[in-house]
Amino acid sequence: MAAFPMFPGTGAGPTAPPLAMASPAGGGSMAPPAALVLPASVGSENLASMPRIAARMNPSSFNQAPQMSIMRMAGQLIQLDGQGSLGLKCSEGGVVNLSSGGIAPSLGGLLNHKVEIIGSKLQDGNITAACALPLTADCELGLWDDFVKLSNDPRLRHLFEPLES
Fold it and tell me: How many angstroms separate the CA atoms of 82 and 86, rounded?
């Protein structure tokens, strides 16, 4: 069997063909599993212009964060009313409202999907979203919440903070 290198030209990598090239018993091309097909991200081009690395938050840490904090939060994107207001339903049951500015008008394709919202906290406690990254349907939001709690623990915080250059 011929090797299909993970890194072309290096010879390094597994000897099995990549998933997209694998053939089912009947021949033909095999499509990736449905769990791997995600909607497109929205606003990812805005990440390069963010003033600093966004801190991961859950509703508890978000409520304690100062106004204009750059943050990222995971949850299910939901519609709050019939007028198009959106919110982020988080693992602990909290819902954080998204402001109507930023990329909010472009988020319709991610409605009812699990997403990571990257943006800033407004004075009224809403999020203005700069980017929305889709997460897989089987993403466990409770683990996100546990991660945020660990990363905010004073004894462990230094392990999760970005290194200064």
Answer: 10
| pLDDT tens digit sequence for 39-87 | 899 999 999 999 888 999 988 889 999 999 999 999 999 999 877 789 9
**Whole-number Å distance between alpha carbons of 34 and 45:** 26
Whether residue 71 contacts residue 127, with contact meaning beta carbons closer than 8 Å, is answered with yes
Q: What is the pTM of this model?
A: 0.73
Confidence of residue 33 (pLDDT cuts 50, 70, 90): low
Calpha distance 26→35 (Å, rounded): 23
Quick one: which of 142, 79, 83 has its CA closest to 109? 79
Tally of residues, the chain: 165
Distance CA 37, CA 130 (A): 23
